[in-house]
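Please produce the structure of this protein holding uridine-diphosphate-N-acetylglucosamine.
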Amino acid sequence: MLPRMDSFVIHGGRKLSGSIAVSGAKNSALPILAVSLMTDAPCSFGNVPLLRDIQTQVKILNTLGVETTWQGRTVRARVKDTYNSTAPYELVKQMRAGVCVLGPLLARRGEAVVSMPGGCVIGERPIDLHLRGLEALGAVIELDHGYIKARTPAGGLRGAEIYLGGKFGSSVLATANVLCAAVLAKGATVIECAACEPEVVDLAECLNAMGAKITGAGSPRIRVQGVRRLKGVDWSVIPDRIEAATFLIAGAITNSAITVTGCRGDHLMAVLDVLRQMGIKVERKGTTLTTVPSGRPKACEVVTLPHPAFPTDAQAQMMALMTIAEGTSTITERVFPERFMAAAEMKRMGARISVANGQAVVQGVDKLSGAEVMASDLRASAALVIAGLAAEGETRISRVYHIDRGYERIEERLRKLGARIQRIAGSDAAPATASGTAG
Ligand code: UD1
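Below is the modeled complex.
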């Protein structure tokens, strides 16, 4: 089913207050759901956010013979048949993360056919690291008619020493794919320049709970001792650090006291540090983070890099905050240098931003003014919502199906904080392109 072209109408310039609970991490749940392919035993995954990307991943798994049932935010999954090992274009084009079934399928079934995810609105998005890592384990891979066709050699995958660094550093989903394949390979694997993101740690811990032998996840060197089989698991995914960052920035831009509950503060250190540099106080008590009204933010310099540095997925939201900061801020994007789609839309709201060579220069203005803008991808949409909350007058954001990929009922949750935000149902279907699949 194609998403509807709904819009949001926001009447901004109001203070918010109250508390908001963070959902389970989309980017953790996506690869973790795929590990259900790696065992015949039943698996149960809790704290799964109810999002369009998750539904797409579940559909991909169903196509691959995994039977799933939902109970609240828990997905129970069990492999029922293994006839089809093809993840089709119609589904993978909706969400690049569909590629994370590649490693699990290959490891368990000895073959995988997965549509090549293609580029998207934030840049080219190659898959060379995924393929290089799997080939190092012995996989035989060909690219054929838009599909990655991978199979294991006679005797199966074999552990290896793998350098998984690319020109932009580590890759989250390449690490996930290679890690899953290494878990069921014969012998020992070392993944050097592995992604250190908390979502990789969550995946590794889930696999270990299934009987895998992984050490070092969360550091650039992961070691895996292959095992013959995995058992089922009952796992709960970590809280979504990007969603938490989005709400904290919403609190900061509206100069409000917002309490975000159920957070992992240790996953948010870089974001909290930038907020601190901007003069925004955030109180941390256990798993709760509260923004303290701190007045107009100060300008800041931010560089996005792989974890533990500032996350690219919070870059657009932080840019929204910078638009009203005192002074001139810069954002240098080192993960996806073309990822500045929110800038042009925020300029329609009075922001002063210039973008060149992977860097945005943001001259703070006193106020944003509401305007008609269009969401281009998931995090750019979140940035426009944040800007709309602060802007004077009415902001109308079209194509909010992008935001539904990564934030559960965001307008209802923001309304509970006092925001004036309404969803206007649209009837037209969105074009079925791979654009805007970043996330
Ligand atoms: C994941 C996240 C996404 C986030 C991104 C970076 C999921 C579902 N998505 O995407 O929200 O923005 O991490 O934190 O977890 N690259 C290569 N070759 C490859 C793979 C990647 O050169 O084979 C490059 C990319 O173009 C990019 C950089 O490596 O410049 C990091 O991308 P990567 O970590 O792979 O992003 P994803 O895992 O796809």
